[in-house]
Amino acid sequence: AHVVESGGGLVRPGGSLRLSCAGSGFPFSGYIMTWFRQTPGKEREFVAAHTPTGGMSYEDSVKGRFTISRDNAKNTLYLQMNSLKPEDTAVYYCNALDESLDWGPGTQVSVSS
Known about the structure:
The chain is mostly beta strands. It is built from no helices and 10 strands. The strands form 2 sheets. A 6-stranded mixed sheet has the order 2-10-9-4-5-6, with no helix packed on it.
């Protein structure tokens, strides 16, 4: 079971990015797919989750700015990030909510002027 994240980059505060997570080797559509993020010296933290039935949940600091979605036909999870702030700077990872998949390489998001 593998995931590969992409779409990160360097943006100015207020900018937008769209992250993608491609899954393989597992029944993607049946999993609660989740975005996490990690900054140096800190634990990996929950960002957003998307259930197989379309339910979504968000960490408080990203509510109203980030939108999680999925395309089960493409085995792909997305994270649309708008109104980015410097504190969103992190490496972003996707996994199942129970972290049962192999961790991917992550994708670096840097928000700086």
